[in-house]
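Supplementary notes (optional reading)

For those who missed the lab, this is the record we used. Protein: Dephospho-CoA kinase. Length: 199 residues.
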Amino acid sequence: MIIGLTGGIAAGKSESAKYFESLGACAIDADVIAHELTAKGMPALDELSKSFGGSILLSSGDLNRKKLADIIFSDEKAKLRIEKIIHSHIISRINEIISQNIMRSNIVIDAPLLFEVGLDRICDKSAVVRVSYNIQVERLVLRDKLNADQAKRRISSQMPMEKKVELADFVIDNSGSKENLKKRVKDLYKLLTSEVKII
């Protein structure tokens, strides 16, 4: 079974993916893959530098990730260009990992843009990790050392949480403690894997 996992920024999606992994699933982190694919010498970085010029590179030739994030969260057209370049590479890599692991374990694709880039179409089920807007802002400020306005801008650059909830098969509420989140993930994984056995 392939489970698509998404959620708003700072909602607890990656934490949830770790819990799925601890239960035996193979977790594929789209953000980690994006980081690997934009390393120095990788084709995706070459495409980005051709499209945006040397301003997105550090003097070492590595990607200036802060500069790229600033572009993504402030320029909608540039954001779409960046996503188009990176996501084709990410999807190809995810498909490779799935083909290597699908016979051995259930797969969880941890992807912030699961619905936006169509990754949900290769999933059997999808789940969104949800928190309230205020909690999301608070966590993002603490995690990324942003001010409230910067955090709100980053949140508003993504698909609204309500839309993700509408598109997902399941919702994992993460407004409580880590233990509560762990239990919700465990219960959902049990439900999903028991569905497979019934079929």
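If you only remember one thing from this example: Residues 76-101 form the longest helix (26 residues).
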